[in-house]
Design a protein that fits this description.
- By secondary structure, the protein is an alpha+beta fold.
- The protein has a single domain (18-218), classed as Fumarylacetoacetate hydrolase, domain 2 (Alpha-Beta Complex).
- It has helices spanning 6-14, 29-34, 107-115, 121-124, 169-176, and strands at 21-25, 44-48, 53-54, 69-70, 73-79, 95-102, 105-106, 130-131, 136-137, 147-152, 155-161, 187-189, 204-209, 212-218.
- A hairpin with a 2-residue loop joins strand 10 (147-152) and strand 11 (155-161).
- The chain is globular.
- The structure holds magnesium ion (MG).
- Residues 23, 25, 72, 74, 103, 189, 191-192 line the site of magnesium ion.
Length: 220
């Protein structure tokens, strides 16, 4: 008989296997401009813990430590095979599926940390800061020319196309895997295009990959 308490069981089901979330900042030129950041010569990488994951269109509960949570819609790669020091030319063998996610960012906290040159973890890695859609086969899409978008309450807020990325999916996998062993189930958020803005309680977020509805959830 299991001795696990209901909360343990719930958490075990939610985070059924250990995985990590890596994310790329400043991968789209227009977004770099809107935040007055410098264009990087190599990818800006940060991570979110697995407790940031939010799935199945569950609502995002607005946290009490911020008053300026921004949406950043991003294409997400799901790693399908363990690897490290992956060469760019073989990187495509390490993922079969892609999805769409939001890299929720507490911009007020991030600005404070950035001004002091401190790490972004609190601004980026908080609970439920990484909603992700179901994943779809990458073979159904042209990854180098992939349109994606975010609507809030039916109004288009962000549109992106992967042809505008500074660093490609394969380059990112190669770069990241020099530092972090990538494991099956790990997720990589590949950066947001311009149009980031605050969300508020009651907002309804819907994301599309090409014309396919990927997620549909509420801020509560
Ligand atoms: Mg982002």
């Amino acid at each position: 008989m299991s001795l696990l308490k209901p909360l343990d069981l719930f958490l075990q089901k939610k985070y059924h296997s250990l995985m990590k979330i890596l994310a790329v900042g400043r991968n789209y030129a227009e977004h770099i401009k809107e935040l007055s950041n410098e264009k990087p010569d190599e990818p800006v990488i940060f991570s979110k813990p697995e407790t940031a994951l939010l799935k199945n269109n569950e609502p995002f509960y607005y946290p009490d430590f911020s008053t300026d949570i921004h949406h950043e819609v991003e294409v997400v790669i799901k790693i399908s095979k363990m690897g490290k020091n992956i060469e760019e030319q073989f990187a495509h063998k390490y993922y079969e599926e892609i999805g769409l996610g939001i890299d929720f960012t507490a911009r007020d906290i991030q600005s404070k940390l950035k001004s002091k040159g401190l790490p972004w973890d609190l601004a980026k890695g908080f609970n439920d800061s990484a909603p992700v859609s179901e994943f779809v086969s990458k073979s159904d899409y042209d990854l180098s020319n992939l349109n994606f978008s975010l609507d809030i309450n039916g109004e288009r807020k962000q549109t992106g196309n992967t042809s505008l990325m500074l660093f490609s999916f394969d380059y990112l996998i190669s770069f990241i895997s020099r530092y972090f062993t990538l494991k099956t189930g790990d997720l990589i958020f590949t950066g947001t295009p311009s149009g980031v803005s605050p969300v508020k309680t009651g907002d309804h977020l819907t994301g599309h990959l090409e014309n396919k509805l990927m997620f549909d959830f509420e801020v509560k």
